[in-house]
């Protein structure tokens, strides 16, 4: 039985962390087998939720690191079915596995079929960067049928009305895009992030996790002081691409240490 | 000619099942802002007066119509009449939309525009409007396209725009669009993304169509005055589809007027090397809208191809997908050879060098003429002039004395 994202976030808290770590890696990068090994290593290093990226030809929300990884994965022949293999491997470790995908590959696969097969692989839900709740009718129905989380994004430009709409439509957690921009590491965490988390909670969201721009243990600790989860992507992808699976797992370990409330648990 | 078609609600965000807003949440506030500004402007006589003045004193509107009898000798006895958008300032219909959106940018208090361009016509038009209205301007262009359209790159730079060659992906228009989206998400408070065709998230397909429908409104009056009746058929090339929506729109309610959209058939639909999205694509989501797209079994966008950089795009405006689904417009592919033959024919018989995009509509019109028979009146949108395409055409017809790269 797969673990849901809310459960994974709550378990991280219970284990003494300020926030959960949500790590992103694209399926098929640098190749399918290594991406399975890397995703499993990320979960074993202590990531509470592993986001498995479905490489897409037109990743308009991604910065250069993730875009290049997706291009390499596609050039290597990764298919949507491979993404489900990665999900299965991550779910077997006990971590929550979610797929992060632009909408068209899901639409092409068939929204109902995708939900069915993701649930069968042990997946916990979907993060959909280019699908807003107004357009998500088909996915809302399919995700309910298969008990999958719907993780929608909010942005610093979201109005209070839209925060409320998104909080109502989402399940598991709400993904707060901390800055107006694409994925990628940044020197500082945008000050907008804290306000956005507070506003999203005020609008009704139970759990809000922050992504875009977090890459160091120090930034992770800062975000953990006000959010339920810290989402890291480009820093892990870069490390995996440059130095391999073990190096990536070590970066993940450092990030997790940054999320611990006391020295005792920092060696998790 | 009096029979009317009932055209169901078509003001977006959806046209039937097509359209919508498949965008990151970060864009929604900006799209709402544009929609509000556009709705206010569209009922503001001052906006219309300002735009009308620019059209008359800057663009050169109304554009004329030209009957082309020598060209039409190959059309089975049909008459062919061209709507001359090629005579507009900057050389195409693109300026109609760009000037209107640039006026909206001023109203929204933004100071910068970004755009993407394939052949360069939309980029040149945007750089022109930015220069005219004092806006900063950045144009994204696939690196491959900057090589194919080097002169247009120079034109944009002369007009004060920054041109950014995009080296990601296939280095063509779709990658330039992705890069423009990336810029926009980070700069949306000061920047307007000036989309050049009837695609993208709502309200762009509606708004751009409204800014282009002047083409058909003028042509309807002009053709009626010339021939005493509405045309039997209206033909236009379709890439993203803005000139086609522009000329079709005034005729949609008239059941007696057949409408034809000609897509870039490239080396033939069967070859897979084409940009004929409705003829050879399938429903999907790309660049913010649900329409027909060229995709593989996993929903990955396929690379499009056309001899015309301006038609080389793997999607099409959602209203076209809708018009096809209800059978109001017939979309057909025209391959490179057929388009280039019509290109040459218009040059030789009428002294007009058309854009290669428009040559697809010209080739289609010759076919339609032979199908409709003697006396039929066919209106064709000549969406642009061929200055930018002279080098491509010269290579196609082997007219250059020197091999490329030789000489000084």
From TrEMBL, chain A:
CDD domains from the UniProt entry: Tryptophan_synthase_alpha
Catalyzed reactions per annotation: (1S,2R)-1-C-(indol-3-yl)glycerol 3-phosphate + L-serine = D-glyceraldehyde 3-phosphate + L-tryptophan + H2O
Pathway participation: Amino-acid biosynthesis; L-tryptophan biosynthesis; L-tryptophan from chorismate: step 5/5
Highest taxon, organism lineage: Bacteria
Class in the EC hierarchy, top level: lyase
Catalytic activity, EC: 4.2.1.20
Keyword Lyase assigned: yes
GO molecular function: tryptophan synthase activity
Gene3D superfamilies: Aldolase class I
Any Gene Ontology CC annotation: cytosol
InterPro entries reported in the protein's UniProt record: Aldolase_TIM, RibuloseP-bd_barrel, Trp_synthase_alpha_AS, Trp_synthase_suA
Residue numbers annotated as active site: 51, 62
Key words of the record: Amino-acid biosynthesis, Aromatic amino acid biosynthesis, Lyase, Tryptophan biosynthesis
Cross-referenced HAMAP family: Trp_synth_alpha (MF_00131)
Function: The alpha subunit is responsible for the aldol cleavage of indoleglycerol phosphate to indole and glyceraldehyde 3-phosphate.
Family matches, as NCBIfam families: trpA
Subunit structure: Tetramer of two alpha and two beta chains.
UniProt record similarity statement: Belongs to the TrpA family.
Protein name as it appears in the record: Tryptophan synthase alpha chain
Native organism: Spelaeicoccus albus
From TrEMBL, chain B:
UniProt GO cellular component terms: cytoplasm
Pathway the protein takes part in: Amino-acid biosynthesis; L-tryptophan biosynthesis; L-tryptophan from chorismate: step 5/5
Swiss-Prot/TrEMBL keywords: Amino-acid biosynthesis, Aromatic amino acid biosynthesis, Lyase, Pyridoxal phosphate, Tryptophan biosynthesis
Catalytic activity line of the entry: (1S,2R)-1-C-(indol-3-yl)glycerol 3-phosphate + L-serine = D-glyceraldehyde 3-phosphate + L-tryptophan + H2O
GO MF terms held by the record: tryptophan synthase activity
Enzyme class, spelled out: lyase
Domain Tryptophan synthase beta chain-like PALP: 61-384
Entry-linked HAMAP family: Trp_synth_beta (MF_00133)
Recorded family membership: Belongs to the TrpB family.
Name of protein: Tryptophan synthase beta chain
């Amino acid at each position: 039985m797969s673990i849901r994202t809310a459960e994974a976030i709550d378990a991280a808290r219970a284990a003494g962390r300020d926030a959960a770590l949500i790590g992103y890696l694209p399926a098929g990068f640098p190749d399918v087998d290594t991406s399975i090994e890397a995703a499993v290593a990320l979960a074993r290093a202590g990531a509470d939720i592993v986001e498995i990226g479905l490489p897409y030809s037109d990743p308009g929300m991604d910065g250069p690191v993730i875009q290049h990884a997706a291009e390499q994965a596609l050039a290597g022949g990764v298919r949507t079915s491979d993404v489900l293999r990665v999900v299965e491997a991550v779910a077997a470790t006990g971590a929550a596995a979610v797929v992060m995908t632009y909408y068209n590959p899901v639409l092409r696969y068939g929204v109902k079929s995708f939900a069915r097969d993701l649930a069968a692989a042990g997946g916990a839900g979907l993060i959909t960067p280019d699908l807003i709740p107004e357009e998500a009718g088909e996915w809302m129905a399919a995700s309910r049928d298969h008990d999958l989380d719907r993780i929608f994004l909010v942005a610093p430009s979201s109005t209070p009305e839209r925060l409320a709409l998104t909080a109502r439509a989402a399940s598991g957690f709400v993904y707060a895009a901390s800055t107006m921009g694409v994925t990628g590491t940044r020197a500082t965490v945008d000050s907008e992030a804290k306000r956005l988390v507070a506003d999203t909670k005020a609008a009704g969201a139970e759990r809000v996790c922050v992504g875009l721009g977090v890459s160091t243990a120090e930034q992770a600790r800062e975000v953990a002081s006000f959010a339920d989860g810290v989402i890291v992507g480009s820093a892990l992808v870069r490390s995996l691409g440059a130095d391999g699976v073990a190096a990536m797992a070590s970066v993940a370990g450092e990030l997790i240490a940054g999320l611990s409330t006391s020295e005792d648990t920092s060696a998790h | 000619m009096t029979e009317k078609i009932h055209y169901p609600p078509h003001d977006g965000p959806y046209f039937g099942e097509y359209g919508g807003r498949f965008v990151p949440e970060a864009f929604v506030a900006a799209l709402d802002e544009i929609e509000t500004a556009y709705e206010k402007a569209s009922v503001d006589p001052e906006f219309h007066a300002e735009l009308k003045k620019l059209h008359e004193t800057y663009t050169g509107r109304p554009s004329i119509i030209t009957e082309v009898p020598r060209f039409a000798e190959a059309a089975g006895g049909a008459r062919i009449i061209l709507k001359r958008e090629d005579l507009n300032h900057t050389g195409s219909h693109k300026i109609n939309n760009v000037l209107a959106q640039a006026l909206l940018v001023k109203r929204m208090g933004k100071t910068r525009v970004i755009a993407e361009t394939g052949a360069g016509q939309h980029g040149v038009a945007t750089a022109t409007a930015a220069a005219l209205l004092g806006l900063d301007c950045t144009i994204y262009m696939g690196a491959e396209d900057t090589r194919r359209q080097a002169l247009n790159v120079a034109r944009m730079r002369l007009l004060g725009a920054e041109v950014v060659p995009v080296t990601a992906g296939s280095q063509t228009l779709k990658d330039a669009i992705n890069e423009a989206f990336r810029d926009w998400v980070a700069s949306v408070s000061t920047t307007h993304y000036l989309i050049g065709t009837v695609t993208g998230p709502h309200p762009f397909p509606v708004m751009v169509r409204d800014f282009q429908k002047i083409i058909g409104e003028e042509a309807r009056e002009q053709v009626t005055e010339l021939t005493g009746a509405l045309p039997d058929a209206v033909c236009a090339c379709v890439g993203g589809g803005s000139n086609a929506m522009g000329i079709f729109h005034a005729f949609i309610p008239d059941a007696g007027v057949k409408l034809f959209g000609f897509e870039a058939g490239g080396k033939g639909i069967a070859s897979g090397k084409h940009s004929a999205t409705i003829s050879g694509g399938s429903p999907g989501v790309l660049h913010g809208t649900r329409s027909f797209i060229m995709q593989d079994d996993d929903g990955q966008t396929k690379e499009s191809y056309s001899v015309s950089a301006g038609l080389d795009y793997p999607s099409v405006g959602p209203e076209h997908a809708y018009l096809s689904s209800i059978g109001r417009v017939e979309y057909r592919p025209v391959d490179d050879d057929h388009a280039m033959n019509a290109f040459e024919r218009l040059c030789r018989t009428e002294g007009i060098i058309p854009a290669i995009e428009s040559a697809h509509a010209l080739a289609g019109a010759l076919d339609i003429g032979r199908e409709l028979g003697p006396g039929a009146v066919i209106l064709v949108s000549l969406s642009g002039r061929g200055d930018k395409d002279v080098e491509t055409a010269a290579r196609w017809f082997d007219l250059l004395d020197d091999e490329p790269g030789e000489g000084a």
